[in-house]
C-alpha cells in the first residue's frame, strides 16, 4: 500500500484531473454497480453529502435509531441541510417494514415531506449485523412505491458481502446511493467513497467542495483505496473468523450475567446489567491499560473489533486479557 501511495500519478482532483482518484472512483462505481462514485475524506462526509443530495430543507429522513448517521455525525442532517430526523428502533439494524411505511407522511400542507431512508450495512452498534438482501430489496421497493430515496451507509458493506456471500453490487442495487469506508476493515489510512447515479454524484461534487472536502493531490490517498479494493477484501473473512472464535472462548467462561453477541462479522459486543452507564467505559479503560484497545459505549456495551493489523497472535492475547478481566469482574 505504501508503494502504491509513493508511485501514484497525481494531479489536482479539485479540477478533476488526478488520474489516481479518477481510477479509484471508476473502480468503486464498477464494483458497486453504480453509474458514478466520488472519493471523500471521511464516511461522515459521504453520508452527509448523500443527505444533502437527496433532501431539501424541511424534508424528513427515516433512520434506524442506533445508526451512525443519526447518532454520531453531530446532527449534520439538521445542521447542514435543515432536514428533520425520524428515528425508529430496529432489531439488529432492521427496521420493520410496516414501521417504515407507517412513518411515511401523507401529502399534507402541515407536514414535512418524507424523502429518504438510511440503513446501515453492517449495522455497527447493533453488533456488526448483516442486513439481509431480501430485507433491503423489500425496503427498496417500498421506497420506490412511495417516492422515497434509500441511502445505504455501507461503511462495512464489504464485510457484509464477504460474510454472506452476497455481491456488494446486489446490496448496492437496492439503494439510490451507497457510502463505504476504505479506512475501516479495508485498511486504508483515510477516505471513503459515495456512489450513485451520475446526477447524484455530480451534485455530490458541489457539496463536497462546500464542505471543504475537495482535496488536491488526493491520489496519494486514493492509491491506498485502489490497493485496498484489490488486496484487502477477501481477508475480511479472517477478521470474521477471529471474532467468532473470541465469542466462543468468552462463552466458555460461563460467566452468569455476561451477554456475548454472536458475531455476523468482525465485532463482538459484551454487556451486563448494572446501574452505572459508565461501567463499559471503565472496563474498556482497564483493558486499555493492559494494551487492549476496545470501545466502551456508555449504557450499551463493550465493542471489540477485529481488523487487518490484529493477527491470530493478537487475537489469542486479546482473549487472554479479556478472559482474565471478565473473570475478575464477575467473581
Ligand atoms: C465509521 C463509520 C462512519 C463514518 O466514517 P468516518 O470516516 O469515521 O467519518 C459512518 N458509518 C458507520 C457505520 C461507521 O462505522
Shape: globular
> What is the helical fraction, as a range of percent?
40-55%
Bound ligands: pyridoxal-5'-phosphate
Strand content: 15-25%
**CATH fold naming of the largest domain:** Aspartate Aminotransferase, domain 2
Secondary-structure topology with pairs:
Layout lengths: L1 H6 L11 H14 L3 E5 L2 H12 L4 E6 L3 H4 L4 H6 L2 E5 L8 H7 L9 E8 L3 H4 L5 H14 L2 E5 L3 H8 L3 H6 L3 E5 L10 E5 L1 H13 L8 H13 L4 H16 L7 E2 L6 E5 L7 H11 L5 E3 L3 E5 L6 H18 L2
The structure holds pyridoxal-5'-phosphate.
Pyridoxal-5'-phosphate binds next to helix 3.
Structure characterization notes:
With 331 residues, the protein is α/β, with parallel strands linked by helices. 46% of the residues lie in helices and 16% in strands. The strands form two sheets. It has a seven-stranded mixed sheet with strand order 1-7-6-5-4-2-3, sandwiched between helices. The protein starts with a helix and ends with a helix.
Label this structure with key terms:
331 residues, alpha/beta, Aspartate Aminotransferase, domain 2, Aspartate Aminotransferase, domain 1, 15 helices, globular, binds pyridoxal-5'-phosphate
In short:
The protein has 331 residues and is an alpha/beta fold. The chain contains 15 helices and eleven strands.
